[in-house]
Amino acid sequence: MSKRSVEEILNIFRKYDIDLEDVCKVIVYWYEPFSIFDGTPVGRLKDAAKEVLEVLKNE
């Protein structure tokens, strides 16, 4: 699996008119109810998505 920069990923989202906020909302929606993911890469992704949403809310 090749590693892409965050900017490359964001450009793919932009290509399809998808906001980072929408992506984060979907991640939180799908994984928030499942504590089984806490401490795993999926759980960390969920935590990061929640933090991004908090930052965007405060802008």
Biggest sheet, in brief?
none
Secondary structure category = mainly alpha
Report the radius of gyration as a whole number of Å: 12 Å
- Please bin the fraction of helical residues: 55-70%
Determine the number of helices (DSSP H or I, runs of at least 4 residues).
3
Spatial separation of the terminal alpha carbons: 34 Å
> What's the pLDDT, averaged over the residues?
91
Shape summary:
globular
Could you characterize the architecture of this molecule?
This protein has 59 residues and is mainly α. It is 66% helix and 0% strand. The protein is built from three helices and no strands. The N and C termini lie far apart (34 Å).
Can you give keywords for this protein?
0% strand; globular; mainly alpha; 59 residues
Short description:
This protein is an all-alpha fold. The chain contains three helices and no strands.
Topology of this protein?
Layout: H1 6-15, H2 20-31, H3 41-57
